[in-house]
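Fill-in record for Glutamate Aspartate periplasmic binding protein GltI (TC 3.A.1.3.4).
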Amino acid sequence: MKAMKLAVAGVALFAATSAAHAGATFDAVKKKGFVQCGVSTGIPGFSLADSKGQWQGLDVDLCRAIAATVFNDATKFKVTPLNTQQRFTALQSGEIDVLTRNTTVTLTRDTTLGLVGAGVNYYDSQGVMVKKDLGVKSAKELGGATVCVQPGTTTELNLADWFRGNKLEFKPVVIDKYDEIVRAFSAGRCDAFTTDKSQLASTRTTLENPDSFVILPEDFSKEPLGPMVRQGDEQWFNIVRWTLNAMLEAEEYGITSKNVDEQVKSPNPNVQRILGTTPGMGKNLGVDDKWAYNILKSVGNYGESFERNLGSASAMKLERGLNRPWKDGGLMYGWPVR
């Protein structure tokens, strides 16, 4: 999803603030003693506070991993819940250090907001959910339907494109806050609800009688979701990007939170570089050579994070799909730590 209407305001804000932030994020984070991450206001599996107020999810795990890279301590982070309208401004202004909220990487975002995507931690697509008793099997049967959607997002634009491309009319019901849009859909204010399919699946688990809802088969878009940082600070960009890559590479080489201490003894030169047995990789980033070891010991590899938050060990029970490792037919391909 993306807040297109923030683009113009974002450029002006970035011009006024970029000089203060360029090249300074890493030092500022180290000085204050924690990483401030922008996350969603509450999407199960991605970022959601539990009954004790502890935030959990795939995007929160990435924030924890960044903290482990910088501080050798995955607990040194804080989160700021942000809706679709707030997220880019919060990053541009320096309110947060990194946006680990489920946000689609697009050309416009990389070129007009003073921000840049640092990788993809979830490949998704946009879909539509309806109540089963509506009797609809395909989105192509939704001509004239009312559809709940969040404003200022790629979701809103993709919805209009898809219906126009299929020569169908629809009536958007535009609601800003995610929890309010879910309540509106549950209450019957709209016939359908559209957002990323992962969000639809997670939301369905929270509804009364989840089996009475169905996600239709059509994919309205490609949604590569991942972290974003401000432009102009290559060191911070590299820390975020290589934190994610280390989690992906570790899964490929079979390094987990449970066996990482044993893997330190591995004769595999790739494993040695990842875990800091061979020195140098941390120095190149400006952090401890054990940075990836610390990620894996405290957070785990990408696959562990996925299974814990979205997969078989979670309430979501989502298939890995495109988020499988490339060797298993997915798109997750960690870059070499060397």
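KEY FINDING: Residues 1-22 have pLDDT under 50 and may be disordered.
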